[in-house]
Amino acid sequence: MNFDFSDIFKDKAIKLVSETAQEIGIDAFVVGGFVRDHILGRPNKDVDVLTLGAQSSERLAMAVKSKLGKYSSMSIFKNFGTAQVKSHDVEIEFVTARKESYNRDSRNPKCEPGNLRDDLSRRDFSLNAMCVRLCDRSDESLDCGIGTGKKGELIDLFDGQRDLEWGILRTPLDPVVTFDDDPLRMMRCVRFASQLGMSPEENTFNAIRENADRIKIITHERIKDEFVKIMMSKRPSVGLYFMEESGLMEQVLPDVHALAGIETKNGRAHKDNFLHTMQVLDNVSEKSDNLFLRISALFHDIAKPQAKKFEQGRGWTFHNHEYLGGKMMPRIFKHLTLPLGMELEYTKKMVSLHMRPISLIEEGVTDSAIRRLLFEAGDDIDDLMILCDADITSNNVLKREKFHNNYKILREKMQEIEEKDHIRLFQPPVSGNDIMETFGIGQCREIGIIKEEIKNAILDGKIHNEREEALKMMFEIAERIGLKKV
């Protein structure tokens, strides 16, 4: 596969670096993801520039910043031989070619100057170990005389183009050494599999299996970054299947790993909840790019292993797994270093409520039950219904159609009630201040009693969501509990 890289010089950042490097006599290459994605025809604005020679990345970065002018900024990281230049529409990373060695108990490498081969060989996968020359070679000794030395030339020492064409993920060096040196590369492997629709080749996959427990030395924040990228890929299940099969899932998300497998008793088996979860997640991902709705899909049945029980005459049951799952979310979010604010509350809500719509259908849909669902779900009701639809994974076509049709009817009823009662954005028609001013009282339990009874009356359809009716009920309750108007 021959590929023409001449058009990369149309990119503003690439053109600027190329011209600047040629002017000051530094050998420079665009390397890694930009080259890979250019071959695949995928957009990528992350420009990583590799330079040859002592302090060359710093010198080139300073020269590029000078050309960008006063509205640009530069950061230098001398310990790693790297620099970064930013302006309003350009962000470029510069790194001097290096070789690395690792202490087994640390993820902090010992870095030394290296040549082009040294640097490319230390990269994670062959498809990220390709680079393109940004200027004509100035000194053959610096890159071991690799290639013709002409601007625009692809340097592919480890057959990255071939692996892209074949759809395989392979490390430039022995994968056991590659993953042992930097265990995060195992997560990057399954992330690329998910993002690019590729598969680890046999030796690479076996090395992940052998080294899966090494992921424990990686910080949860760095693992979270790869997990989020997997979750935002077109089919997240691809990466998550590889995580499960390789042993990474058991290390990173043991609660998800616990979903896998089937237990049989008295000749009756339950479905594999891991496989079901993967179907639900992909179904949601087809409909929504909302990261936390996708995360809700991954965790919607997370408590089934704890709730699982075999009942004579009924078989396997998972009573209250949605409630237990919601209670698990803070611990899991903290473990993954996911946000503990509104994103956590949203996910708890999705997990806790995902069985409610189906129970409404099975028990008979009443206006009161719909009002309560609308009240509890609030503005997230549409996302909840996406999750509920995605949760229908039966192999029985007629059964699937029946559930989808039932949800369609439920949506129509929810819309009808919402238009009439405005429950989704429910605000109490009578506030705590109204009650205190009317009866001349301060904060007390009686205020909560009045507000709760009015809320329940509205949700149960006993009164309309209107101030006049709510005020009338307020006086009735106040009289019953001994409050008098001032």
Description of the molecule:
It is a single chain. The chain has 486 residues and is of the alpha+beta class. The chain has 24 helices and 15 strands. A seven-stranded mixed sheet has the order 3-4-5-2-1-8-9. Strand 12 (264-265) and strand 13 form a beta hairpin. The radius of gyration is 30 Å and the shape is elongated. The mean pLDDT is 90.
Topology diagram in text:
Blueprint: H1 12-24, E1 28-31, H2 33-40, E2 47-51, H3 56-68, E3 73-77, E4 82-86, E5 91-96, E6 98-101, E7 110-113, H4 116-121, E8 131-133, E9 154-155, H5 160-166, E10 168-169, H6 175-181, H7 184-196, E11 199-200, H8 202-211, H9 220-231, H10 236-246, H11 248-252, H12 254-257, E12 264-265, E13 268-269, H13 273-287, H14 291-299, H15 304-307, E14 309-311, E15 315-317, H16 321-336, H17 342-353, H18 356-363, H19 367-377, H20 381-390, H21 397-421, H22 432-439, H23 445-459, H24 467-481
Parallel strand pairs: 2-5, 10-11
Antiparallel strand pairs: 1-2, 1-8, 3-4, 4-5, 6-7, 8-9, 12-13, 14-15
Helix pairs in contact: 1-3, 6-8, 7-9, 7-10, 10-13, 13-14, 13-20, 14-17, 16-17, 19-21, 23-24
Structural category is alpha+beta
What is the rounded distance between the termini? 88 Å
Low-confidence stretches are: none
Structural shape: elongated
The amount of beta strand, in percent, is 5-15%
Number of helical regions: 24
Arrangement of strands in the largest sheet: 3-4-5-2-1-8-9
What is the radius of gyration computed over CA atoms, rounded to a whole number of angstroms? 30 Å
How many E strands? Answer: 15
The overall pLDDT, averaged over residues, is 90
Bin the helical content: 40-55%
**What is the makeup of the main sheet?**
7 strands, mixed
